[in-house]
Amino acid sequence: MKTVYGLMINSGDADEMLWDHGVWETEEAANSYIESEMSHISGVWVGELKVNDSIPEAAEYQDDEMVECPLCGIEYNREDVNTDDYDEVVCINCEPGYKENMNIA
Ligand SMILES: [Zn+2]
C-alpha cells in the first residue's frame, strides 16, 4: 500500500473523490494543482488515499516479456505479435482476420 493524494469535494451529503483529475504523489503537488486549475471552484481540498502498489496499468507496462492482444485478450511473447504494421497490437492468430477487415473498410 502507498499513499497518494487526490481532490475531494463535498457533493451535498457526502465527500466525493474527484478521480477524473488524477492523483498526486505529494500533498504539495495536489495543492498546487488546486491553486492553478481549480481556484474557481470553492470547497475542493486534498484528501489522502491508500492505494494498492500494484496498480494494474503500471504492472502491465513493466512487463516487457508478454504483450496482450486487444482483439483476443490473450498474452503473447513479443515475437508472436505484430506491433509495427498496425495502429494496435495484433497477434499472429488475429492478424489474418484483422487484415481482411482493414481491406473491407
Ligand atoms: Zn489476438
Write the layout of secondary structure elements.
Layout: E1 2-10, E2 15-17, H1 27-37, E3 44-51, H2 56-62, E4 66-68, E5 75-77, E6 81-82, E7 90-91, H3 95-104
Antiparallel strand pairs: 1-2, 1-3, 4-5, 6-7
Bound molecules: zinc ion.
Zinc ion is lined by residues 69, 71-72, 74, 91, 93-94.
How would you describe what is shown here?
Helices cover 27% and strands 29% of the residues. With 105 residues, it is of the alpha+beta class. It folds into 2 domains: 2-53; 64-104, no CATH class. It has a 3-stranded antiparallel β-sheet with strand order 2-1-3, covered by helices on one side. It is elongated, with a radius of gyration of 21 Å. The termini are far apart. The relative contact order is 0.14. Bound molecules: zinc ion. Zinc ion binds at residues 69, 71-72, 74, 91, 93-94.
Could you give the order of strands across the largest sheet? 2-1-3
Helix content: 25-40%
* Number of structural domains: 2
Task: Outline the biggest β-sheet.
Answer: 3 strands, antiparallel
Helix/strand order, N-terminal first = EEHEHEEEEH
Quickly give the structural class.
Answer: alpha+beta
Alpha carbon gyration radius: 21 Å
Which molecules other than protein and nucleic acid are bound? zinc ion
β-strand number:
7
Counted by DSSP, the helix tally is: 3
Strand content: 25-35%
In whole angstroms, the N-to-C terminal distance is 46 Å
Name a few traits of the molecule.
3 helices, 2 domains, 29% strand, 105 residues, alpha+beta, 3-stranded antiparallel beta sheet, binds zinc ion, elongated, 7 strands, two-stranded antiparallel sheet
